[in-house]
Amino acid sequence: MKHGVSGRRLGRPTGHRLLMYRTMVTDLLRHERIRTTEAKAKEVRGMAEKMITLGKKGSLNHRRQAIGFITDENIVRKVFDDLAQRYAGRNGGYTRVIKMEPRKGDGASMAVLELV
User: Fold this and answer.
1) Is residue 9 included in any domain, yes or no?
2) SS3 state at 98
3) Angle at 30 between CA 27 and CA 36, to 5 degrees
4) What 3-state class would DSSP assign to 20?
5) Measured between alpha carbons, how far is 40 from 87 in angstroms, rounded to an integer?
6) Has residue 80 been placed in a domain?
7) Helix 38-57 / helix 60-69 crossing angle, nearest 10 deg
């Protein structure tokens, strides 16, 4: 039974799935916009918002937590310097998911995940 188990598995083993999430969050913070499937976008959204919240808090411990998740140290600097200033007056809701037409090959529902 699947009582109380949250999150999507996306047909991948745990290690692969977690690294995929980390890479997608890093790419979202780098490019500020990514195109992916709707299910992946909905999973990555919360993780990206958590990284921006860590950047707003700004302590050394929060920076180390962000370095442990984000795969590029330059992006961590961007989060703590630029994005933290941009979203200083905003309490959450840093990202949006915009649905797109289905993918041609397999009909998967696609979406654009972008920073507000």
Assistant:
1) no
2) strand
3) 35
4) helix
5) 24
6) yes
7) 160
Structural domain range at position 88: 14-115
Per-residue pLDDT of the chain (116 residues), as tens digits, is 889 888 999 999 999 999 999 999 999 999 999 999 999 999 999 999 999 999 999 999 999 999 999 999 999 999 999 999 999 999 999 999 999 999 999 999 999 999 99
Asked whether residue 6 is domain-assigned, the answer is no
The total number of structural domains that make up the chain: 1
Q: What is the DSSP secondary-structure string of 24-89?
A: HHHHHHHHSEEEEEHHHHHHHHHHHHHHHHHHHH--HHHHHHHHHHSS-HHHHHHIIIIIHHHTTT
Assess contact for 45 and 95: CB atoms under 8 A. yes
CATH of the domain at 62: 3.90.1030.10
Token reading at 84 = 């933290």
Examine residue 23 and state whether it is found in any structural domain, yes or no: yes
